[in-house]
What we know:
The protein is mainly α. The chain has 2 domains: 1-37, no CATH class; 40-81. The protein is 86% helix and 0% strand. It is elongated and about 95 Å long. The chain starts with a helix and ends with a helix. The mean pLDDT is 86.
Amino acid sequence: MAKETTNKVEKKEDKKPNIFVRFGRKVKEVFSELKKVTWPTFPKIAKATGVVIVVVLVFTIAVTAVDSGLIQLLKLLTNLG
């Protein structure tokens, strides 16, 4: 009978905790890591956002110019034939 109780104890130790316990541990880990994060200041965020907007506008203008040029070239080639 002593062997049966030791086997039951070993099986309980080998068994994984249920999903809610594991999820709770993960949530705690996430929040502890978020406390360590150094968040950027608002001026840094505004500057980075401005840079992104400018880069997007520059590429939009460049792609539009190339597209217009290719359309004009296609019109020129189709009028010749």
